[in-house]
Design goal:
There is one protein chain. A hairpin with a 2-residue loop joins strand 6 (about 175-180) and strand 7. Helices cover about 40% and strands about 25% of the residues. The chain has helices spanning about 30-45, 55-65, 85-95, 110-120, 140-155, 160-170; strands spanning about 1-10, 15-25, 70-80, 100-105, 125-135, 175-180, 180-185. The protein is built from 6 helices and 7 strands, in the order ββααβαβαβααββ. It has a 7-stranded mixed β-sheet with strand order 5-4-1-2-3-6-7, with helices on both faces. With about 180 residues, it is of the alpha/beta class. The longest helix is centred in the last third of the chain and has 18 residues, at about 140-155.
Amino acid sequence: MLIFIDESGVHKKDGQSSVALVYVMIEDIENIEKAILNTEKMLKITSFHWPRHIWKIRFNFIKALIKENFSVKAAIIKNPFSEDSFEEALKSLLIERKIRKIVIDGKKPKWYALRLKKILRNRGISVKKIRTGDDKAFPCLRLADAYAGLIRAYWNDTSNTKAKELYKLASKKITTQLVGGQVTG
């Protein structure tokens, strides 16, 4: 199992932040990466990044990938964002025992990965490798970015019809969602 983690809105002072974990089975990684690259090519974009694209591109990106074999777990955290709330969310979401690799979007300090490994070890979860990366090198981080952006957009404004429509489609892949520490359906 490979897990790709992205956050959205963590730099904001108010509203919500979201953390999206995209789970990909090892044997499916090549197919999903190929589908992401093909979707971007079809949409005539170099690489997907939530804040850079209009709703039409966002919708088409997620719609094209929804048929692929992946799942999403997410947490919605009230701002201001804190490392402790992020850590608690990860403790609740990362329950699988055999994780080959976790890739976290963006530059993080070395202690961040070490702290995450310690949390997982304390819970009896084996992780061979935790690393940070950018979305250029890891196409699945772009999928995590899409979910993190969408989930935050939806929970910050549930009356936004575009976010609501896309969330309804994308939620088929969300297996677990924590809002304020509570699991939602």
